[in-house]
Design goal:
The protein has 592 residues and is α/β, with parallel strands linked by helices. 41% of the residues lie in helices and 18% in strands. The protein has an eight-stranded mixed β-sheet, with helices on both faces. The chain has a five-stranded parallel β-sheet with strand order 2-1-3-4-5, with helices on both faces. Strands 8-7-6-9 form a four-stranded parallel β-sheet, sandwiched between helices. The chain starts with 9 loop residues before the first helix and ends with a strand. Helix 6 links the parallel strand 3 and strand 4.
Length: 592
Protein backbone atom coordinates (compact mmCIF):
# COMPACT_ATOMS: atom_id res chain seq x y z
CA UNK A 1 0.00 0.00 0.00
CA UNK A 2 1.42 3.34 -1.08
CA UNK A 3 0.41 5.09 2.15
CA UNK A 4 2.55 2.64 4.16
CA UNK A 5 5.63 2.84 1.93
CA UNK A 6 8.65 4.78 3.14
CA UNK A 7 8.74 7.78 3.27
CA UNK A 8 5.24 7.81 4.74
CA UNK A 9 3.11 10.54 6.29
CA UNK A 10 2.90 9.68 10.00
CA UNK A 11 0.06 12.08 10.73
CA UNK A 12 -1.99 10.62 7.87
CA UNK A 13 -1.44 7.05 9.10
CA UNK A 14 -2.50 7.94 12.64
CA UNK A 15 -5.57 9.78 11.39
CA UNK A 16 -6.67 7.21 8.78
CA UNK A 17 -5.71 4.03 10.63
CA UNK A 18 -9.20 2.50 10.55
CA UNK A 19 -9.80 3.11 6.85
CA UNK A 20 -6.31 1.84 5.98
CA UNK A 21 -6.93 -1.31 7.99
CA UNK A 22 -10.25 -1.88 6.26
CA UNK A 23 -8.66 -1.47 2.83
CA UNK A 24 -5.86 -3.90 3.69
CA UNK A 25 -8.20 -6.57 5.01
CA UNK A 26 -10.35 -6.36 1.88
CA UNK A 27 -7.54 -6.40 -0.71
CA UNK A 28 -7.67 -10.19 -1.22
CA UNK A 29 -4.03 -10.77 -0.23
CA UNK A 30 -2.88 -14.15 1.04
CA UNK A 31 -1.30 -13.69 4.47
CA UNK A 32 0.33 -15.85 7.11
CA UNK A 33 -1.22 -15.69 10.58
CA UNK A 34 1.13 -14.94 13.48
CA UNK A 35 0.55 -14.39 17.20
CA UNK A 36 2.51 -11.49 18.70
CA UNK A 37 2.76 -10.83 22.43
CA UNK A 38 3.57 -7.22 23.32
CA UNK A 39 4.88 -6.80 26.87
CA UNK A 40 5.15 -3.08 27.56
CA UNK A 41 6.79 -0.83 30.11
CA UNK A 42 4.64 2.03 28.84
CA UNK A 43 1.42 2.54 26.88
CA UNK A 44 1.43 0.25 23.83
CA UNK A 45 -2.10 0.44 22.38
CA UNK A 46 -1.32 2.88 19.55
CA UNK A 47 1.91 1.06 18.72
CA UNK A 48 -0.03 -2.19 18.32
CA UNK A 49 -2.69 -0.56 16.13
CA UNK A 50 -0.13 0.94 13.74
CA UNK A 51 2.07 -2.16 13.81
CA UNK A 52 -0.92 -4.15 12.57
CA UNK A 53 -1.14 -1.94 9.46
CA UNK A 54 2.48 -2.46 8.47
CA UNK A 55 2.32 -6.21 9.09
CA UNK A 56 -0.85 -6.56 7.04
CA UNK A 57 0.89 -4.67 4.24
CA UNK A 58 3.81 -7.10 4.53
CA UNK A 59 1.45 -10.08 4.11
CA UNK A 60 1.32 -11.03 7.79
CA UNK A 61 -2.00 -11.17 9.63
CA UNK A 62 -1.17 -10.48 13.28
CA UNK A 63 -3.07 -11.48 16.40
CA UNK A 64 -1.96 -9.61 19.51
CA UNK A 65 -1.68 -10.14 23.22
CA UNK A 66 -0.96 -6.93 25.16
CA UNK A 67 0.21 -6.86 28.74
CA UNK A 68 -1.44 -4.42 31.11
CA UNK A 69 0.37 -1.11 31.52
CA UNK A 70 3.94 -1.59 32.82
CA UNK A 71 3.38 -5.30 33.57
CA UNK A 72 6.12 -6.53 31.23
CA UNK A 73 8.25 -8.04 34.00
CA UNK A 74 5.37 -9.70 35.82
CA UNK A 75 4.01 -11.21 32.59
CA UNK A 76 7.47 -12.51 31.70
CA UNK A 77 8.30 -14.02 35.07
CA UNK A 78 4.80 -15.20 36.03
CA UNK A 79 2.77 -15.40 32.80
CA UNK A 80 -1.00 -15.12 33.27
CA UNK A 81 -3.15 -17.93 31.95
CA UNK A 82 -4.27 -15.79 29.01
CA UNK A 83 -0.67 -15.43 27.81
CA UNK A 84 0.10 -19.11 28.36
CA UNK A 85 -2.91 -20.09 26.27
CA UNK A 86 -2.08 -17.48 23.63
CA UNK A 87 1.24 -19.25 22.80
CA UNK A 88 2.87 -16.40 20.84
CA UNK A 89 4.94 -16.88 17.70
CA UNK A 90 7.06 -13.88 18.69
CA UNK A 91 7.37 -11.76 21.85
CA UNK A 92 8.15 -8.05 21.79
CA UNK A 93 9.45 -6.35 24.94
CA UNK A 94 8.72 -2.65 24.68
CA UNK A 95 10.91 -1.13 27.37
CA UNK A 96 12.68 2.23 27.22
CA UNK A 97 14.97 4.27 29.44
CA UNK A 98 11.86 5.10 31.49
CA UNK A 99 11.97 1.47 32.67
CA UNK A 100 15.54 1.48 33.98
CA UNK A 101 15.11 1.03 37.72
CA UNK A 102 18.48 2.22 39.01
CA UNK A 103 20.60 5.01 37.55
CA UNK A 104 23.90 6.49 38.74
CA UNK A 105 23.92 9.28 41.31
CA UNK A 106 26.66 11.88 41.63
CA UNK A 107 27.55 10.51 45.06
CA UNK A 108 28.05 6.94 43.75
CA UNK A 109 31.44 5.27 43.66
CA UNK A 110 32.59 3.33 40.58
CA UNK A 111 31.81 0.13 42.43
CA UNK A 112 28.27 1.27 43.21
CA UNK A 113 27.63 2.22 39.58
CA UNK A 114 29.00 -1.12 38.42
CA UNK A 115 26.66 -2.97 40.77
CA UNK A 116 23.70 -0.95 39.47
CA UNK A 117 24.67 -1.84 35.91
CA UNK A 118 25.01 -5.55 36.66
CA UNK A 119 21.75 -5.51 38.63
CA UNK A 120 19.84 -4.18 35.60
CA UNK A 121 21.49 -6.65 33.25
CA UNK A 122 20.69 -9.56 35.60
CA UNK A 123 17.08 -8.40 35.82
CA UNK A 124 16.61 -8.34 32.06
CA UNK A 125 18.48 -11.60 31.52
CA UNK A 126 16.13 -13.25 34.02
CA UNK A 127 13.17 -11.88 32.03
CA UNK A 128 14.56 -13.20 28.76
CA UNK A 129 15.44 -16.58 30.19
CA UNK A 130 11.96 -16.98 31.66
CA UNK A 131 10.33 -16.17 28.32
CA UNK A 132 12.66 -18.51 26.43
CA UNK A 133 11.89 -21.40 28.77
CA UNK A 134 8.13 -20.85 28.73
CA UNK A 135 7.45 -19.96 25.10
CA UNK A 136 10.36 -21.11 22.88
CA UNK A 137 9.79 -18.37 20.31
CA UNK A 138 11.80 -15.40 18.98
CA UNK A 139 12.12 -12.44 21.34
CA UNK A 140 12.47 -8.83 20.18
CA UNK A 141 13.85 -6.44 22.79
CA UNK A 142 14.21 -2.65 22.54
CA UNK A 143 17.57 -1.28 23.48
CA UNK A 144 17.58 2.06 25.32
CA UNK A 145 17.34 5.51 23.79
CA UNK A 146 19.54 8.23 25.28
CA UNK A 147 18.10 10.60 27.94
CA UNK A 148 16.60 13.85 26.74
CA UNK A 149 18.91 15.84 29.03
CA UNK A 150 22.55 15.47 30.18
CA UNK A 151 23.22 16.49 33.77
CA UNK A 152 26.94 16.92 33.14
CA UNK A 153 26.68 18.16 29.58
CA UNK A 154 29.28 16.62 27.28
CA UNK A 155 31.03 14.88 30.18
CA UNK A 156 27.91 12.77 30.70
CA UNK A 157 29.06 10.37 27.97
CA UNK A 158 32.42 9.51 29.56
CA UNK A 159 32.05 9.96 33.32
CA UNK A 160 31.13 6.74 35.14
CA UNK A 161 28.29 8.63 36.87
CA UNK A 162 26.83 9.93 33.64
CA UNK A 163 23.43 8.54 32.67
CA UNK A 164 24.42 8.70 29.00
CA UNK A 165 27.49 6.59 29.77
CA UNK A 166 25.39 4.15 31.84
CA UNK A 167 22.84 3.66 29.04
CA UNK A 168 25.59 3.02 26.49
CA UNK A 169 27.00 0.32 28.77
CA UNK A 170 23.55 -1.21 29.32
CA UNK A 171 23.04 -1.37 25.58
CA UNK A 172 26.41 -3.06 25.18
CA UNK A 173 25.26 -5.71 27.66
CA UNK A 174 22.11 -6.26 25.59
CA UNK A 175 24.20 -6.61 22.44
CA UNK A 176 26.49 -9.17 24.06
CA UNK A 177 23.45 -11.25 25.01
CA UNK A 178 22.01 -10.98 21.48
CA UNK A 179 25.33 -12.02 19.93
CA UNK A 180 25.41 -15.30 21.85
CA UNK A 181 21.67 -16.09 21.89
CA UNK A 182 19.66 -17.55 19.02
CA UNK A 183 16.20 -16.13 18.29
CA UNK A 184 16.90 -12.93 20.22
CA UNK A 185 16.74 -9.66 18.30
CA UNK A 186 17.45 -6.05 19.25
CA UNK A 187 15.03 -3.35 18.13
CA UNK A 188 17.39 -0.39 17.86
CA UNK A 189 15.40 2.53 19.24
CA UNK A 190 18.70 4.21 20.16
CA UNK A 191 19.27 4.64 16.42
CA UNK A 192 15.60 5.32 15.65
CA UNK A 193 15.33 8.11 18.19
CA UNK A 194 18.50 9.73 16.87
CA UNK A 195 17.24 9.42 13.29
CA UNK A 196 13.87 10.92 14.23
CA UNK A 197 15.34 13.59 16.49
CA UNK A 198 15.85 12.80 20.16
CA UNK A 199 14.41 16.08 21.40
CA UNK A 200 11.08 15.50 19.63
CA UNK A 201 11.06 11.72 20.23
CA UNK A 202 11.49 12.10 24.01
CA UNK A 203 9.14 15.04 24.51
CA UNK A 204 8.23 14.56 28.21
CA UNK A 205 4.69 15.84 27.59
CA UNK A 206 3.67 12.48 26.11
CA UNK A 207 4.99 10.54 29.10
CA UNK A 208 3.53 12.89 31.67
CA UNK A 209 0.12 13.00 30.00
CA UNK A 210 -0.32 9.55 28.45
CA UNK A 211 2.62 7.38 29.61
CA UNK A 212 3.87 7.17 26.01
CA UNK A 213 7.63 6.58 25.99
CA UNK A 214 7.89 8.41 22.66
CA UNK A 215 5.95 11.18 20.98
CA UNK A 216 2.78 10.24 19.14
CA UNK A 217 4.02 11.27 15.71
CA UNK A 218 7.05 8.94 16.01
CA UNK A 219 4.87 5.83 16.51
CA UNK A 220 4.57 4.98 12.77
CA UNK A 221 8.38 5.11 12.37
CA UNK A 222 8.73 2.93 15.47
CA UNK A 223 6.07 0.44 14.31
CA UNK A 224 7.49 0.25 10.79
CA UNK A 225 10.96 -0.53 12.10
CA UNK A 226 9.55 -3.22 14.39
CA UNK A 227 7.49 -4.71 11.55
CA UNK A 228 10.64 -5.10 9.46
CA UNK A 229 12.19 -7.35 12.11
CA UNK A 230 9.02 -9.45 12.33
CA UNK A 231 8.63 -9.87 8.58
CA UNK A 232 12.31 -10.81 8.31
CA UNK A 233 11.90 -13.48 11.00
CA UNK A 234 9.06 -14.98 8.97
CA UNK A 235 10.84 -14.86 5.61
CA UNK A 236 9.13 -11.86 4.01
CA UNK A 237 12.31 -10.06 2.94
CA UNK A 238 13.04 -9.10 -0.65
CA UNK A 239 15.81 -10.92 -2.54
CA UNK A 240 16.80 -8.80 -5.52
CA UNK A 241 17.15 -5.30 -6.94
CA UNK A 242 16.24 -4.43 -10.54
CA UNK A 243 18.23 -1.27 -11.20
CA UNK A 244 17.78 1.39 -13.83
CA UNK A 245 21.03 2.94 -15.13
CA UNK A 246 20.69 6.50 -16.49
CA UNK A 247 20.20 9.00 -13.65
CA UNK A 248 19.98 6.07 -11.20
CA UNK A 249 23.44 4.47 -11.13
CA UNK A 250 25.03 7.50 -12.74
CA UNK A 251 24.06 11.02 -13.72
CA UNK A 252 23.14 11.68 -17.32
CA UNK A 253 22.17 9.46 -20.26
CA UNK A 254 25.03 7.30 -21.48
CA UNK A 255 23.53 6.93 -24.96
CA UNK A 256 23.40 10.72 -25.43
CA UNK A 257 26.26 11.98 -23.27
CA UNK A 258 28.72 9.17 -23.93
CA UNK A 259 30.69 7.38 -21.23
CA UNK A 260 32.91 10.43 -20.69
CA UNK A 261 29.85 12.64 -20.16
CA UNK A 262 28.07 10.72 -17.40
CA UNK A 263 28.49 11.77 -13.76
CA UNK A 264 30.14 9.22 -11.46
CA UNK A 265 33.23 9.53 -9.29
CA UNK A 266 34.81 12.10 -6.98
CA UNK A 267 34.80 15.29 -9.06
CA UNK A 268 31.52 16.97 -8.07
CA UNK A 269 28.90 16.67 -5.35
CA UNK A 270 26.49 15.00 -7.76
CA UNK A 271 29.02 12.51 -9.12
CA UNK A 272 30.09 11.72 -5.53
CA UNK A 273 26.45 10.90 -4.65
CA UNK A 274 26.18 8.40 -7.50
CA UNK A 275 29.54 6.92 -6.51
CA UNK A 276 28.38 6.43 -2.91
CA UNK A 277 25.10 4.90 -4.09
CA UNK A 278 27.03 2.33 -6.12
CA UNK A 279 29.18 1.63 -3.05
CA UNK A 280 26.01 1.01 -1.03
CA UNK A 281 24.67 -1.41 -3.65
CA UNK A 282 27.99 -3.26 -3.66
CA UNK A 283 27.64 -3.72 0.11
CA UNK A 284 24.08 -5.02 -0.34
CA UNK A 285 25.49 -7.58 -2.74
CA UNK A 286 27.84 -8.76 0.03
CA UNK A 287 24.70 -9.53 2.09
CA UNK A 288 23.52 -11.87 -0.64
CA UNK A 289 21.16 -9.40 -2.33
CA UNK A 290 20.92 -10.15 -6.05
CA UNK A 291 21.71 -7.22 -8.36
CA UNK A 292 20.15 -7.00 -11.82
CA UNK A 293 19.82 -4.30 -14.47
CA UNK A 294 16.51 -3.16 -15.97
CA UNK A 295 17.22 -0.26 -18.32
CA UNK A 296 15.87 1.17 -21.54
CA UNK A 297 19.21 1.35 -23.31
CA UNK A 298 21.33 -0.24 -25.97
CA UNK A 299 23.12 -3.17 -24.37
CA UNK A 300 26.52 -1.96 -25.55
CA UNK A 301 25.97 1.49 -24.03
CA UNK A 302 24.89 -0.09 -20.75
CA UNK A 303 28.05 -2.20 -20.56
CA UNK A 304 30.21 0.80 -21.40
CA UNK A 305 28.57 2.78 -18.60
CA UNK A 306 29.11 -0.04 -16.11
CA UNK A 307 32.78 -0.15 -17.11
CA UNK A 308 33.30 3.55 -16.35
CA UNK A 309 36.71 3.80 -14.64
CA UNK A 310 35.28 5.86 -11.75
CA UNK A 311 32.36 3.51 -11.12
CA UNK A 312 32.15 0.95 -8.32
CA UNK A 313 29.90 -1.64 -9.95
CA UNK A 314 31.01 -3.70 -12.94
CA UNK A 315 29.00 -5.87 -15.37
CA UNK A 316 29.96 -9.04 -13.49
CA UNK A 317 28.35 -7.66 -10.31
CA UNK A 318 24.96 -8.23 -11.98
CA UNK A 319 23.32 -11.61 -12.42
CA UNK A 320 21.01 -10.41 -15.19
CA UNK A 321 21.42 -7.35 -17.43
CA UNK A 322 18.26 -6.36 -19.29
CA UNK A 323 19.32 -3.33 -21.34
CA UNK A 324 16.89 -3.08 -24.25
CA UNK A 325 13.81 -1.18 -25.35
CA UNK A 326 11.17 -3.57 -24.00
CA UNK A 327 8.70 -2.50 -21.30
CA UNK A 328 10.38 -2.69 -17.93
CA UNK A 329 7.63 -4.76 -16.32
CA UNK A 330 8.25 -7.42 -18.95
CA UNK A 331 12.00 -7.31 -18.32
CA UNK A 332 11.44 -7.67 -14.57
CA UNK A 333 9.11 -10.64 -15.08
CA UNK A 334 11.70 -12.30 -17.34
CA UNK A 335 14.45 -11.57 -14.81
CA UNK A 336 12.40 -13.26 -12.08
CA UNK A 337 11.87 -16.29 -14.31
CA UNK A 338 15.59 -16.53 -15.14
CA UNK A 339 16.51 -16.37 -11.46
CA UNK A 340 13.72 -18.78 -10.47
CA UNK A 341 12.28 -16.28 -7.98
CA UNK A 342 8.87 -14.63 -7.86
CA UNK A 343 8.43 -11.00 -8.99
CA UNK A 344 7.37 -10.07 -5.44
CA UNK A 345 10.97 -10.79 -4.37
CA UNK A 346 12.22 -7.86 -6.47
CA UNK A 347 12.60 -4.16 -5.67
CA UNK A 348 12.58 -1.93 -8.76
CA UNK A 349 14.85 1.13 -8.46
CA UNK A 350 14.30 3.84 -11.08
CA UNK A 351 14.44 7.63 -10.92
CA UNK A 352 11.58 7.94 -13.43
CA UNK A 353 8.15 8.10 -11.72
CA UNK A 354 6.38 7.15 -14.96
CA UNK A 355 8.38 3.92 -15.25
CA UNK A 356 7.73 3.15 -11.58
CA UNK A 357 4.00 3.70 -12.08
CA UNK A 358 3.87 1.34 -15.08
CA UNK A 359 5.75 -1.41 -13.26
CA UNK A 360 3.58 -0.94 -10.17
CA UNK A 361 0.37 -1.24 -12.20
CA UNK A 362 1.52 -4.31 -14.14
CA UNK A 363 3.40 -6.05 -11.30
CA UNK A 364 1.72 -4.79 -8.11
CA UNK A 365 3.78 -7.07 -5.86
CA UNK A 366 7.06 -5.53 -7.04
CA UNK A 367 8.16 -2.76 -4.69
CA UNK A 368 8.82 0.56 -6.43
CA UNK A 369 10.24 3.03 -3.87
CA UNK A 370 10.21 6.73 -4.80
CA UNK A 371 13.78 7.53 -5.88
CA UNK A 372 13.78 11.32 -5.76
CA UNK A 373 17.15 13.09 -5.66
CA UNK A 374 20.33 11.04 -5.84
CA UNK A 375 21.36 12.33 -2.41
CA UNK A 376 18.30 10.50 -1.00
CA UNK A 377 18.75 7.16 -2.79
CA UNK A 378 20.65 5.39 -0.02
CA UNK A 379 18.33 6.68 2.70
CA UNK A 380 15.23 5.59 0.79
CA UNK A 381 16.43 2.02 0.25
CA UNK A 382 17.97 1.72 3.70
CA UNK A 383 14.97 3.03 5.64
CA UNK A 384 12.52 0.95 3.59
CA UNK A 385 13.75 -2.20 5.34
CA UNK A 386 13.50 -4.45 2.30
CA UNK A 387 16.53 -6.48 3.36
CA UNK A 388 16.34 -6.47 7.18
CA UNK A 389 18.79 -9.06 8.55
CA UNK A 390 17.67 -11.31 11.41
CA UNK A 391 19.78 -14.30 10.40
CA UNK A 392 22.80 -14.58 8.17
CA UNK A 393 24.08 -17.93 6.98
CA UNK A 394 26.97 -19.13 4.84
CA UNK A 395 24.49 -19.67 2.01
CA UNK A 396 23.48 -15.99 2.17
CA UNK A 397 27.12 -15.02 1.79
CA UNK A 398 27.45 -17.24 -1.29
CA UNK A 399 24.07 -16.54 -2.85
CA UNK A 400 25.31 -14.40 -5.74
CA UNK A 401 27.94 -16.99 -6.59
CA UNK A 402 25.32 -19.74 -6.53
CA UNK A 403 23.11 -17.86 -8.98
CA UNK A 404 26.09 -17.23 -11.26
CA UNK A 405 26.78 -20.95 -11.23
CA UNK A 406 23.14 -21.51 -12.19
CA UNK A 407 23.68 -19.28 -15.20
CA UNK A 408 26.62 -21.48 -16.22
CA UNK A 409 24.39 -24.54 -15.86
CA UNK A 410 21.77 -22.95 -18.11
CA UNK A 411 24.42 -22.18 -20.71
CA UNK A 412 25.68 -25.76 -20.52
CA UNK A 413 22.15 -27.12 -20.91
CA UNK A 414 21.73 -25.28 -24.19
CA UNK A 415 24.53 -27.39 -25.71
CA UNK A 416 22.73 -30.71 -25.10
CA UNK A 417 19.95 -32.12 -27.26
CA UNK A 418 19.01 -34.68 -24.60
CA UNK A 419 18.11 -33.36 -21.13
CA UNK A 420 19.19 -36.60 -19.46
CA UNK A 421 22.65 -36.27 -20.97
CA UNK A 422 22.81 -32.73 -19.60
CA UNK A 423 21.94 -33.92 -16.08
CA UNK A 424 24.61 -36.63 -16.28
CA UNK A 425 27.15 -34.03 -17.36
CA UNK A 426 26.56 -32.02 -14.18
CA UNK A 427 28.19 -34.79 -12.10
CA UNK A 428 25.78 -34.14 -9.24
CA UNK A 429 26.47 -35.42 -5.73
CA UNK A 430 23.89 -35.04 -2.94
CA UNK A 431 24.11 -35.35 0.82
CA UNK A 432 20.69 -36.28 2.24
CA UNK A 433 20.66 -36.83 5.98
CA UNK A 434 18.89 -36.11 9.25
CA UNK A 435 19.17 -32.53 10.49
CA UNK A 436 22.44 -31.47 12.09
CA UNK A 437 23.01 -28.34 14.23
CA UNK A 438 25.19 -26.53 11.70
CA UNK A 439 22.31 -26.42 9.17
CA UNK A 440 19.34 -25.71 11.47
CA UNK A 441 19.42 -21.96 10.80
CA UNK A 442 19.48 -22.50 7.00
CA UNK A 443 16.73 -25.14 7.23
CA UNK A 444 14.53 -22.76 9.23
CA UNK A 445 15.30 -19.96 6.79
CA UNK A 446 14.20 -22.13 3.86
CA UNK A 447 10.86 -22.95 5.52
CA UNK A 448 10.08 -19.25 5.74
CA UNK A 449 11.35 -18.23 2.30
CA UNK A 450 10.37 -21.05 -0.07
CA UNK A 451 6.96 -20.48 -1.66
CA UNK A 452 6.86 -22.18 -5.06
CA UNK A 453 8.14 -25.71 -4.43
CA UNK A 454 6.45 -25.97 -1.04
CA UNK A 455 3.56 -28.40 -0.72
CA UNK A 456 2.13 -27.29 2.63
CA UNK A 457 3.83 -23.88 3.12
CA UNK A 458 4.20 -24.71 6.80
CA UNK A 459 6.37 -22.06 8.49
CA UNK A 460 8.64 -22.77 11.44
CA UNK A 461 10.22 -20.48 13.98
CA UNK A 462 13.78 -21.39 15.04
CA UNK A 463 12.43 -22.71 18.35
CA UNK A 464 9.81 -24.86 16.60
CA UNK A 465 12.45 -26.28 14.27
CA UNK A 466 14.71 -27.09 17.19
CA UNK A 467 11.81 -28.90 18.89
CA UNK A 468 11.26 -30.97 15.72
CA UNK A 469 14.98 -31.77 15.60
CA UNK A 470 14.97 -33.07 19.18
CA UNK A 471 11.73 -35.07 18.85
CA UNK A 472 11.77 -38.83 18.11
CA UNK A 473 8.32 -38.46 16.52
CA UNK A 474 9.67 -37.17 13.21
CA UNK A 475 11.65 -38.30 10.22
CA UNK A 476 13.69 -35.31 9.07
CA UNK A 477 15.81 -34.86 5.95
CA UNK A 478 17.88 -32.04 4.56
CA UNK A 479 19.33 -32.20 1.06
CA UNK A 480 22.59 -30.56 -0.05
CA UNK A 481 23.57 -30.64 -3.72
CA UNK A 482 26.98 -30.15 -5.33
CA UNK A 483 27.86 -30.36 -9.02
CA UNK A 484 30.78 -29.54 -11.28
CA UNK A 485 29.86 -25.85 -11.28
CA UNK A 486 29.73 -25.44 -7.51
CA UNK A 487 27.97 -26.05 -4.21
CA UNK A 488 24.25 -25.21 -4.15
CA UNK A 489 24.14 -25.52 -0.36
CA UNK A 490 21.13 -26.87 1.55
CA UNK A 491 18.31 -26.81 -1.01
CA UNK A 492 15.60 -29.22 0.18
CA UNK A 493 13.85 -30.14 3.42
CA UNK A 494 11.36 -32.88 4.28
CA UNK A 495 9.69 -33.29 7.69
CA UNK A 496 7.36 -36.22 8.30
CA UNK A 497 5.51 -37.04 11.54
CA UNK A 498 5.14 -40.68 12.58
CA UNK A 499 1.70 -42.01 13.42
CA UNK A 500 1.85 -45.74 13.97
CA UNK A 501 2.65 -47.31 10.60
CA UNK A 502 1.95 -44.05 8.72
CA UNK A 503 4.20 -41.06 8.08
CA UNK A 504 2.43 -37.72 7.52
CA UNK A 505 4.51 -35.25 5.48
CA UNK A 506 4.19 -31.95 7.34
CA UNK A 507 6.67 -30.15 5.10
CA UNK A 508 8.32 -30.73 1.74
CA UNK A 509 10.11 -27.86 0.08
CA UNK A 510 12.94 -27.22 -2.31
CA UNK A 511 14.83 -24.16 -3.48
CA UNK A 512 13.82 -23.17 -6.98
CA UNK A 513 17.44 -22.91 -8.05
CA UNK A 514 17.66 -26.73 -8.31
CA UNK A 515 14.34 -27.39 -10.03
CA UNK A 516 14.27 -30.18 -12.64
CA UNK A 517 17.54 -31.65 -11.43
CA UNK A 518 16.16 -34.92 -9.95
CA UNK A 519 16.72 -33.68 -6.38
CA UNK A 520 13.07 -34.26 -5.47
CA UNK A 521 13.36 -37.90 -6.58
CA UNK A 522 16.54 -38.33 -4.55
CA UNK A 523 14.79 -36.90 -1.47
CA UNK A 524 11.86 -39.29 -1.90
CA UNK A 525 14.19 -42.28 -2.31
CA UNK A 526 15.91 -41.43 0.98
CA UNK A 527 12.57 -40.76 2.70
CA UNK A 528 11.29 -44.23 1.71
CA UNK A 529 14.54 -45.75 2.96
CA UNK A 530 14.12 -44.05 6.36
CA UNK A 531 10.49 -45.16 6.51
CA UNK A 532 11.50 -48.76 5.96
CA UNK A 533 14.05 -48.47 8.75
CA UNK A 534 11.30 -47.14 11.06
CA UNK A 535 8.79 -49.85 9.97
CA UNK A 536 6.55 -47.24 8.35
CA UNK A 537 4.21 -48.84 5.78
CA UNK A 538 2.43 -45.81 4.27
CA UNK A 539 3.54 -42.27 3.43
CA UNK A 540 0.74 -39.73 3.39
CA UNK A 541 1.39 -36.46 1.54
CA UNK A 542 -0.59 -33.23 1.62
CA UNK A 543 -0.90 -30.40 -0.86
CA UNK A 544 -2.42 -27.08 0.26
CA UNK A 545 -2.77 -24.64 -2.66
CA UNK A 546 -1.59 -21.06 -2.42
CA UNK A 547 -1.19 -18.32 -5.01
CA UNK A 548 2.45 -19.33 -5.43
CA UNK A 549 2.79 -23.12 -5.20
CA UNK A 550 0.73 -24.28 -8.20
CA UNK A 551 3.87 -25.80 -9.74
CA UNK A 552 3.73 -28.72 -7.25
CA UNK A 553 -0.01 -29.37 -7.44
CA UNK A 554 0.47 -32.78 -9.09
CA UNK A 555 3.91 -33.58 -7.69
CA UNK A 556 2.76 -36.53 -5.60
CA UNK A 557 0.96 -38.00 -8.61
CA UNK A 558 4.15 -37.94 -10.68
CA UNK A 559 5.88 -39.84 -7.86
CA UNK A 560 3.34 -42.65 -7.91
CA UNK A 561 1.20 -41.54 -4.97
CA UNK A 562 -2.56 -42.18 -5.18
CA UNK A 563 -4.90 -39.28 -4.51
CA UNK A 564 -7.29 -40.26 -1.71
CA UNK A 565 -9.21 -37.01 -1.21
CA UNK A 566 -9.70 -33.46 -2.46
CA UNK A 567 -11.88 -30.75 -0.96
CA UNK A 568 -13.57 -27.71 -2.53
CA UNK A 569 -10.55 -25.50 -1.77
CA UNK A 570 -8.25 -27.81 -3.75
CA UNK A 571 -6.52 -29.32 -0.71
CA UNK A 572 -5.47 -32.85 -1.62
CA UNK A 573 -4.28 -35.91 0.28
CA UNK A 574 -2.09 -38.60 -1.31
CA UNK A 575 -0.80 -42.00 -0.22
CA UNK A 576 2.18 -44.13 -1.19
CA UNK A 577 2.74 -47.70 0.04
CA UNK A 578 6.36 -48.17 1.06
CA UNK A 579 6.38 -51.83 0.00
CA UNK A 580 7.25 -52.24 -3.64
CA UNK A 581 8.60 -48.69 -4.08
CA UNK A 582 11.53 -48.51 -6.47
CA UNK A 583 14.10 -45.70 -6.40
CA UNK A 584 13.42 -42.92 -8.93
CA UNK A 585 16.63 -40.88 -8.85
CA UNK A 586 18.71 -41.57 -11.95
CA UNK A 587 21.26 -38.77 -12.14
CA UNK A 588 22.45 -37.87 -8.63
CA UNK A 589 25.08 -39.77 -6.72
CA UNK A 590 24.21 -39.95 -3.02
CA UNK A 591 27.09 -39.23 -0.67
CA UNK A 592 26.73 -41.50 2.36
Amino acid sequence: MKELTYPFDSAYILKKRKSLRKALLSDGSSRIHKKIAVLGGSTTSDIVKVLELFLLDQKIEPEFYESEYAQYEQDAMFPPQELLEFQPDVIFLHTTNRNIRVLPEMTDTKEMVEEKLQSELRRFEAIWQSLREKFHCPIIQNNFELPFYRLMGNRDCCDYRGVTNFIHRLNDGFYDYAAKTDNFHIHDIDYLSADYGLKAWSNPLFWNMYKYALCLDAIPSFAFSLSNIIKSIFGKNKKALALDLDNTLWGGVVGDDGVDGIEIGQETGVSQSYYEFQQYLKKLKSLGILLTVCSKNDHENAIDGLNHPEGVLRPDDFLVIKANWENKDRNIAETAAELNILPDSIVFVDDNPAERAIVSSQLPDVQTPPMEGVENYITTLDRSGFFEVTSFSEDDLKRNEMYKENALRSAAQATFADYGDYLKSLQMVATIEDFIPVYLARITQLTNKSNQFNLTTRRYTPAEMEAVWHSPDYIRLYGKLVDKFGDNGVVSVVIGKKDGKTLHIDLWLMSCRVLKRDMEQAMLDKLVQRCREAQIETIRGYYYPTKKNGMVKTLYGTFGFTKVSEDEAGNTVWELPVAGYENQNRYIQIND
